[in-house]
Queue: 2 jobs
Job 1
Amino acid sequence: MSQRRLRQFASHQRQLRRARRQYAACLDSPPGDLPGIQRVPSNPEKLSHNKTFGPLPLFYEDLFFVCADCNSEEIWAAADQKWWYEEFKADINSIATRCPTCRAAINARPMQQPAEEPEQEQPLLATSA
Ligand SMILES: [Zn+2]
């Protein structure tokens, strides 16, 4: 490696270290560097059902959320996100809001019966005698 390339390399390494320090300073623990946090790469072809002008994710990352019903603290696993968006073909802007227990409780509820009101007979067309 030439002296010039060595200097460029060293300069690049310093820039990287500075960027990492700045990143760590603005976030106490950068995502992806937290132990136990999983990342899964996305498959852009399987996301083509999304008609969005925004960027599609390059990867999924374990996501922390609070259940909307019971307020329990939950992790939406990266692999589950991949299935939700790429296999179930959900909208890329939809996110998990309920823990598995609350979701199961909703799914176990019997289908709501339609309102008790008798259906009004709708006159179809005025019939001529
Ligand atoms: Zn819940």
Job 2
Amino acid sequence: MDQRIMDYVTEHREDIIRDWQELVNLEGSLREPEYLDIEAEWLKQKFTDAGVSCEIVHTKEHYPPLIRGVLGEDRPGKPVIFAGHFDTVFDRGTFGDHPFRIEGDHAYGPGVLDMKGGIIITLWTIKALEYIGFTDRPVRICFCGDEEGGSDHGPVEDIFRNWTDGCIAGFDMETSPIDHKLCVGRKYVMTGKAVIHGISAHSGNNYEAGRNAITEAAHKVIAIQNMNNMELGTHMNPAVISGGTVANAIPGECTLTFSGRFRYKTEIERVKQELHELFSSSVIEGTTSEYTLTDPFGGFETSEQIMGLWKFVNDVCVEEGLHEVGHVFLGGGSDASGMAESGTPVLCSCGVRGEWNHTDREYASVSSMSERICMWTSVLQHMNEFNV
Ligand SMILES: [Zn+2]
């Protein structure tokens, strides 16, 4: 590796940790937009100091902000983008005051891994690039405040897609698995809700006049489960069911909530078609159904381009004497989804390595912080060799 990168990161180790500590200690979940405004201001200051032209964007009132920016807009090459989120699943104060702490190689605190570590990697990669005089291409950033289950994430996804459009590569600085792997695909989630209408009747006096909505729903539950395709990674889950009123009445209505996780968009289309057929017919004559589906979200499909980018990154690691990165397909969603919609090759899980996100055991490997700053700085240094 370029000795200057190594020296820069070693020399600034304390500063890097201090930034990490400050950001983790700011705290805030997406339910606390006022705290996320404070975080966005902190990020804007830090990235501006590093030379990035930043703006804070509000997609609606009383909702967490997003920060995006660019450094070296006039540079000749296609831009690279680093992205992710600064909200965490934890409300402020969940772990007491000043929760960031280090024990051995483990750093603790809400979001230390998911994914404030990745933001600090981005900041210091940019600073290291400036230090070595990198001017090959613009570097963009985009971090949102509502990734962990935001109710109105659509406009934010559009910004991720637009800001990634035209880039040579995108890196989502999410949590990395402890074993150095980068994520090359994630599953889409789609949820649905159905109402099955039957005919209620006294279960003794008018049995034959009734049409049992729960029984009809039971047929549909089995049918939905059978839409699985384990080989293709399609997992259907009938998740919540409710219906009926009292034991001596035939239930006239039943609601059913279900979800599916998909590796491939073609599978989403297949399941949508089968759901349409399922809910427009019935086993028990006289019952009817209606249903709604959410748009599939959170996923991105592995492609040749994405695998090409992964191989390029791994080759740089080998050449520069860094730890090799494996690759993994993950079940949970991320903002790599919106980024990949742009057609730019994207890798996810580019942040600090660690375990147990979303729990009080969450920790990040402290050494992975310097390791990945060196890694991404080296990758950008070599980016001219990347052929899409
Ligand atoms: Zn995350």
